[in-house]
Design brief:
globular, 4-stranded antiparallel β-sheet, alpha+beta, 20% helix, 39% strand
Length: 80
Amino acid sequence: MNLLAFKQLPMGQQARCLHQTGHLLAERGQDSFRLTLYALSDFYAEVWRVRDEEHILFIHLFQHPAGLAGYLDRIRLPEF
């Protein structure tokens, strides 16, 4: 699924899509938030939640590698 098609989905379907077909790359904390980074097709998705809660506040989408800066020391690449 490309970025444009993903953006058109409701947030609940976006979350299911990330869980089912996205590649979990990393997690990190920022202030009182927990951020989870996924790679999917031609973009990245950053899921924002309040720390210690499962409710998703929003999903930030980006394609530019500069958005990965906060994750570089945490990204887990698949083992072969």
